[in-house]
């Protein structure tokens, strides 16, 4: 890539309307560009790591996202108070909210992202499908208008053929996505997708398309400035997923061993991405997601009008800081390179280290982290939002960190990832570290280029066969000791460092570590919550007969829906909860009298 003189900092102060690893990742680029970073934090995040990484931090509200990070008025109020001239939304929360982009414009603060009109055009999955079809881009067969009723969904499904996917019009990140393998499952899929769309995106409209069995999920990163330049930064393969949410991403994909096929696929995807961006006058960073059919032909899936979680692997193979380019574009600066200047070197992998128990169907895990040790060394990058002593709350998603590695080719990257995972140590909550170790097995499906469907469906045998990771013992080191002359304090809603006049004073003792609940233990017949969460649905009534394994209640925890089933057949004696109630692990939901 040609050397271009450095531009002046695009902004003076930038508020990051997010939390966790993505907030910290953005802060780092801001610091490199000489821009003051401003953080916001909820009541649940007062001691979160991202608060300490920012130059300034401000309280934003309650524990739930709806009381804090999703409150546009509060976010814009902090921006005004802090004198921020731009807001970077990260991903999730307000990142793809067109009304928030418009509110930023009205407030005179730059939204680091596309225009509100582009978000509307591509944020609606139905509108974007119709746009792509009109542009001649192949789409997965299905509806291009929101479904008006379950009856209409049944009619479309009959035309398309089962299995079908029901998707929220404004959904993303696996939210608002349900699959019906048969006609009998359609109502549950329809209602579940609509419910998640309403809860996470304030839009319950859904559409339907044919569900492709075990396709490859491939996406292409693009950047578009205000001067007519649009470039793509190559493709990523994101086929390893659970519940339609990504677990492992790589750039390029497993096809990279065939240079001719790689060049052909990259050119076709780039053509689709650039054409889609031009069709809506797109500006800033965006991602076109596609499914590859059996013959390798890409079908347009959706466009994400924001920075992606997995943007890291593209950064490692291109050397381009995507967040820095987002900021420059938002400030009206031109891209400093053309398509022919983009070079791809080596292979990069990302493993999402989520707080989940893979052996228990990837059940979310919350609690206190008693030890956190990240790997290091050549070609290893960790974007994390947690450390020893951090608390993983049930209020947000499960992502703790992204472990990213680079190697000169795919085999080298897998070997490096295997080593880094052996060094990664987290205790106090369940994580996917050992799941990823199993995935990186030298003889495993991922190494052979597969989508790991079998491993995701039943990871326990592979995880049980894992050897003890010697690297973790070698990497172990005492936890860093905090400086006893400094304290963090909150003054009038703003985080500040207070330096003590008496150096002999010690910090207060940390709170005792709460043990994690083992799950739904209780008296015979009592169906208890295995994890803390909020009651989304109660599916039974008193006096109702239930079968063993029948779902009686749905809990939401860490942005995931969890179906709670009756352990045995019987009759519902009592329902102990109601919709909207927050429950702790072990809280009795339903009492069932066993059948004689």
Question: Summary?
Answer:
The chain has 596 residues and is of the alpha+beta class. It has 16 helices and 32 strands. The protein has an eight-stranded antiparallel β-sheet, sandwiched between helices. Strands 5-4-1-2-3-24-23 form a seven-stranded mixed β-sheet.
If you compute it from the alpha carbons, what radius of gyration comes out, rounded to the nearest whole angstrom?
24 Å
Q: Which fold does the CATH topology of the largest domain refer to? A: D-amino Acid Aminotransferase, Chain A, domain 1
Termini separation: 75 Å
Strand content: 25-35%
Strand tally is 32
How many separate structural domains?
4
Overall shape: globular
List the main descriptive attributes of the protein structure presented here.
596 residues; alpha+beta; Rossmann fold; Dna Ligase, domain 1; D-amino Acid Aminotransferase, Chain A, domain 1; 4 domains; eight-stranded antiparallel beta sheet; seven-stranded mixed beta sheet; 27% helix; 29% strand; globular
Structure report:
- There is one protein chain.
- The chain has 4 domains: 1-112 and 482-514, Rossmann fold (3-Layer(aba) Sandwich); 141-210, Dna Ligase, domain 1, CATH 3.30.1490.20; 216-474, D-amino Acid Aminotransferase, Chain A, domain 1; 526-594, Beta Barrel (OB fold (Dihydrolipoamide Acetyltransferase, E2P)).
- The chain has 16 helices and 32 strands.
- Strands 13-12-9-10-11-14-21-19 form an 8-stranded antiparallel sheet, sandwiched between helices.
- The radius of gyration is 24 Å and the shape is globular.
- The termini are far apart.
- The relative contact order is 0.10.
